[in-house]
Amino acid sequence: MVYVLFFVFLAACVAAGSTGGLFPPGKWYEALNKPRWTPPDWVFPVAWGVLYLCIAAAAARVAMLPGAGLAMAFWALQVALNGLWTPVFFGLKRIRLGLVVVCTLWAVVAATMVLLYIQDPFAGLLFVPYLLWVTIASALNFAVMRLNPREAAGPAAA
Amino acid sequence: MVYVLFFVFLAACVAAGSTGGLFPPGKWYEALNKPRWTPPDWVFPVAWGVLYLCIAAAAARVAMLPGAGLAMAFWALQVALNGLWTPVFFGLKRIRLGLVVVCTLWAVVAATMVLLYIQDPFAGLLFVPYLLWVTIASALNFAVMRLNPREAAGPAAA
């Protein structure tokens, strides 16, 4: 059962993560000013691949435990928000709204991590790399907003 | 607790449904050939508003029941897919890929409905209007694909 659960949760992650392939960083992102510590483009899909395995494994460990309902509700909320950032940032080119999405995701991931930890400490620890990566993503979104005030002021024409 | 669960699940629905506001049907959709039975634009947000309340209520009823893990995993998968269709169809203008997404969503919603029903028949019934609406949405996506062969053949330039 835990394998079935793992693959269903992983499918949810893949559905959310598919926006990363559908709305790739194009010339618009390339031309933006970015901080010196910006990871190269290839790091993002690799990082998300590893993270999605951890995120799905954490949910699969906890899903069948008694009283896991709230942790599962927050897990569903984080996966819905996870798929939202890429269409907002790369699709709509809305840097400020992207920051709102990624900061909301950060708070929800932190809450999910605590709720998972209460059910099963190892599941909570599986969310630590995710929280760290969303921290980096939030900092990057913030830095891009500060370094490109004109682009951040108004959404580019679609 | 059931109210807290309801609002967290509803937040997940709102996150997925926000793509409907972010990628509204524009001139491109207006100009497409559509079947005579296409619902008017205003029906869609109203229908989704009611459906999201039912979808969140179904999850809140089931989340704390013992053995609800698989139903919760499929619930998370349907919410991740739910937010994907609008960016694909209205954002990328990819009609065929939209059909793949909405048909996958249909199958996942049907599976979630059965799993919810096993845990709590009323929760399963709360998913019936959702399945009916996704059936209509799939038929509409299919009809639009058939009625606009040129638009469906290749994605419009972004």
From TrEMBL, chains A, B:
It is found in: Membrane. GO terms for biological process: tetrapyrrole metabolic process. It is a multi-pass membrane protein. The chain crosses the membrane at residues 44-77, 97-118, 124-144. The keyword Transferase does not apply. InterPro entries: TspO/MBR-related_sf, TspO_MBR. Its main location: membrane. This is Sensory protein TspO. It comes from Meridianimarinicoccus roseus. The lineage of its organism: Bacteria, Pseudomonadati, Pseudomonadota, Alphaproteobacteria, Rhodobacterales.
